[in-house]
Amino acid sequence: MIRSSVSNCPVPADQQPLNEYEQLKGSWLFRDSTLHWREYITKILWIWGLSWLVAGPVAAASFPPQKYFAHFILCGAGGASIGVLLAVVRLYLGWFYVCDRLCSGTVFYEESGWYDGQTWTKPQEVLNRDRLIVAYEIKPILRRLQFTFAGLAGMFVIGTIVWHLL
Predict the structure, then answer these.
(1) Does the residue 127 lie in any domain?
(2) What are 119-162's pLDDT values in tens digits?
(3) Is residue 5 part of a domain?
(4) What span, in angstroms and rounded, lies between the C-alpha atoms of 160 and 75?
(5) Which residues, in sequence order, are CB contacts of 73 under 8 Å at separation 6+?
(6) Domain for residue 59, yes or no?
(7) Distance CA 115, CA 63 (A)
(8) What are the DSSP calls for 115-154, one per residue?
């Protein structure tokens, strides 16, 4: 029954919220945010480690490790965390966009270009399905990303306190 409503949908397939969700869920960066906590943290640590390739030399130029080792580590870790922060912001914005499109009772879409936008009102069964997906699939991901933001903020605060104690 849901398929018949969706088959009457005038929204192009690539702009339908459910298809946008499936595409996002399958893309390489966004897929990582759906993993179990252990694998998710591992991916975040990989991003942080790779960010050290840029942050390390900058920190070493500012604070030579032989002379200011603690400052070098704190500066490098903070700089590398910016790479993680940018990745998490990108994840959050992508998931939030799809969440908003799924929760909305109407879908804005473009038929052939930016100048001919239309709006489609979702039938109730499609809206219910989409909101269930949001409640059970997307909201936990958004909460995880918010928790990651809080963890990063906590690390920056701890790093700042340690910096001032040195």
Answers:
(1) no
(2) 899 999 999 999 999 999 999 999 999 999 999 999 999 999 99
(3) no
(4) 10
(5) 59
(6) yes
(7) 53
(8) TSEEEEEPPHHHHHHHHHHIIIIIHHHHHHHHHHHHHHHH
Query: Per this entry, what is the length of the chain?
Result: 166
Element containing residue 43 per DSSP (H, E): helix 37-62
Contact 133, 104 (CB under 8 A): no
57: tokens are 């030399």
119 part of a folded domain: no
Q: Kindly report the pTM of this predicted structure.
A: 0.88
> What total number of domains does the chain contain?
1
Helix (H) or strand (E) holding 74: helix 69-103
Judged by DSSP in three states, 36 sits in coil
| pLDDT tens digits along 31-85 | 999 999 999 999 999 999 999 999 999 999 999 999 999 999 999 999 999 999 9
Domain span at 146: 15-99+141-165
The Cα–Cα gap between 50 and 46 comes to: 6
